[in-house]
Amino acid sequence: MTLPPRVTDRAFARLAEIAEEAGEVKALRVAVEGGGCSGFQYDIRLDDPAADDTIFEKDGMKVLVDEVSMPFLANAVIDFSEELIGARFVIENPNASSSCGCGTSFSM
Known about the structure:
This protein has one helix at residues 9-22; strands at 6-7, 27-34, 40-47, 53-58, 61-66, 77-83, 86-92, 98-99, 105-107. Helices cover 13% and strands 45% of the residues.
């Protein structure tokens, strides 16, 4: 069964921290583009909503996925990870058949 991506509470919480630090609320855009060392790559950035976006919202924080990227992110989990090597938004994508070591590039 194909489900839309799920955004974790940890990802929404980090987005709220970013908004508080910046003094403005921007949405987190998660998109899939061609390129990277494995064929596709994630583009994760702060952005404003567009007309074709699916919006996931919690407590005023928004995560955006455009309609072209949505099939690539079906059943995926958008999360935030803090490790010794750094902190970043991460995508756990069951559609990816392989990914590179940096976690931003994948193939299907």
